[in-house]
Amino acid sequence: MVGLLDIITVGLFAAALRMATPIAFASLGGIFSERAGIINIGLEGMMLTSAFTGVAASYFSGNPWFGVLAAVLVGGLLGLFHALLTVKFVGDQIVSGTGINIFALGFTAYMSQVLWGSRGASESVQGLRVVSIPLLKDIPIIGDIVGTHTPLVYLMLIITVLSYIILFKTPIGLRIRAVGEHPAAADTAGIDVFKTKYLCVMVSGMLAGLGGAFLSLGHLNLFAWGMTGGRGFIAMAAMIFGKWTPFGAFGASFLFGFAYALQMRLQTLELLPPQIILAIPYILTVIVLAGVVGWLKAIPPSDYKPYVKE
Amino acid sequence: MTEERRELSERNLETKELLRRFLARLELELRRIIPQVIAILLAFLAGAIVLLVTGYSPLEAYGALVIGAFGDVFGIGQTFTQATPIIFTALAFLFAFKSGLFNIGAEGQLLVGGFAAALVGISFDGLPPFVHAPMALLAGALAGGLWGFIPAILKAKLGAHEVITTMMLSYVAFYVTGYLVNYPYKAPGWVSQTPPIAPSAELPRILQPTQLSASILIAVILVGLTHYTLQKTTFGYEVRATGLNPAAAESGGISIKRGMILALVISGAMAGLGGAGEVMGVHRRFIEGFSPGYGWDGLAVALVGGLNPVGVLLAAVLFGALRSGGMTMTRVTGVPLDIVSILQALVILFVAAPMLIRYLLKRGGFKWWGS
């Protein structure tokens, strides 16, 4: 019989990194948007639409990388839409994001029915292949955890570092943060507040798009109804847990990824009913959000008020 | 003679004044309603494009939808049946929103409320209906209220953002009720559902052979109560003050935290009551995942209804029609039912940004409302 301790293996950590990838992508997306003063609750819907788009593009082209590209484009497009509604037309950010989420759920199910005759799942498509990083994979333990993955996992790690550099070590990042914290002052200093917000929310959507592409093309090789399953919201929790910093968000995403990996192993053990196991990541999110915000004093980087030029 | 004339002219003036006031009021109301109506029209227009692009005829689809929803007594009955839970979830969203909170977890609160009502419904036998049914309703409201209390207390005490927690708790509610209905309370057979509730816990059907139940009467009463509470009571004033300007409310001696917690608990209770109504009036048992998304419908309806209880009533009928007519549309034309969610989302997006509609109107040359 397999015991509880037997599931704690090196493979579990590798799975955790895999499961953390879509959450981390979306979480980084959340950071770009919120640092520029726009809440992006639509991350969930952007991920889902991109997950669908990625599969559809891979289905028609036979090339999963074409799918990734399409997913990023669609994510960016939805980001642009969110920015239009909330920046140009000063609409409510949460209402707009929720609208995007509901749209994504309906639209992807509708299109899945149109394309594959089933709203539940698409046909299997060509997914992304895993690669092994030559020297890295030979290091004991670490090599087993990070040595062999789909390229999107490595892209996520690279983008995490890049995001940190961009946001905190370059003038561009300074501008972004200024726009989020003091839009009026940023404007006076000659920064184009609106353009910055547009770009950041678009980048946010593109990153969520990468997360969606990973879910459908780097993980299951098909699109399933509502396959994001709240990961966009969990990514927001990871962003808050990580105090709106890329490394913090990655760490928190890894925690959630670990919960997902553990959940999958627990299911094979059949110690608990599947429904209870499936609820674990969501309960963990609530606990993290409740415990951490009070304890870490995570203060949002912006008051998210729409900026209106005098 | 002159006396008479003066009287006449005075009356004339009075009539004119009344007319003027009436017109001013009308203009005010129209200015409020027109953008909502335009949002709905634009959503249907955009939905028509989706239909066209995917090879369906919008005219046929929308035609089947309207005929399905309003074509005969049965359709109308089903429309109101579908509108009923939406009224509850819309009021739930509205009440929390008035206190400045986004409760996007009505779906989960509806599910736990429905399950609690079913539990009371199957647990007792031989109670008189006037005891059993209210007990089950109360259980639904309490369970929903509890599901609202968790994010409320986490927000008030620890600052956890309610948009995320209410959403997460919706998933938890889905899985927990899923567990309960698949294991301890599963009725024999392959369907994930509880045994039927006792007849004494059923809400009567009021328009046979449709599933329309007395739950809609509770919903309408709740609309009135919500309106009254928000507009005429001190508590309602506190809730609205908290939502409009928390800092001012606090310095005015209103406890924001207390207001937020109460508002979210009441919000959850309303959604829970809606779930109880579904279980007791429509299904007569708890079926796993019985809600096709009433929580989201409620959000859309609250927004389209202008965040006003009476507006909610009208908008709920529209969304009920989408759900009931949508089924006919799918059967007759083969259009996937998910077009309903697409329309719903489009309405939300257009309502989210009134400035967008104003902009489109100006572009289209309609200066009056755009001014």
What does this structure look like?
The complex is a heterodimer of chains A (310) and B (371). Chain A has 310 residues and is mainly α. Chain A has one domain: ABC transporter involved in vitamin B12 uptake, BtuC (Orthogonal Bundle), CATH 1.10.3470. Helix content of chain A is 71%, strand content 1%. Chain A has 13 helices and 2 strands, in the order ααααβαβαααααααα. Chain A has a two-stranded antiparallel ribbon with strand order 1-2. Chain B is mainly alpha-helical and 371 residues long. The longest helix of chain B has 52 residues, at 2-53. Chain B has helices spanning 2-53, 58-70, 73-98, 106-123, 129-158, 162-182, 215-232, 234-244, 246-251, 256-283, 294-304, 309-333, 339-352, 354-363, 367-370. The radius of gyration of chain B is 23 Å and the shape is globular. Chain B has a domain at 84-305. Helix content of chain B is 77%, strand content 0%. At the A-B interface, helix 3, helix 4, helix 10, helix 12 and helix 13 of A face helix 5, helix 6, helix 11, helix 13 and helix 14 of B.
Describe the structure concisely:
The complex is a heterodimer of chains A (310) and B (371). With 310 residues, chain A is mainly alpha-helical.
Alpha carbon gyration radius of chain A: 19 Å
Q: Provide the gyration radius of chain B in Å.
A: 23 Å
What is CATH's topology name of chain A?
Answer: ABC transporter involved in vitamin B12 uptake, BtuC
For the largest sheet of chain A, list the strands in their spatial order. 1-2
β-sheet strand percentage of chain B: under 5%
How helical, in percent, are the residues of chain A? over 70%
Work out the oligomeric state of the chains in this entry: heterodimer
Extended strand count of chain A: 2
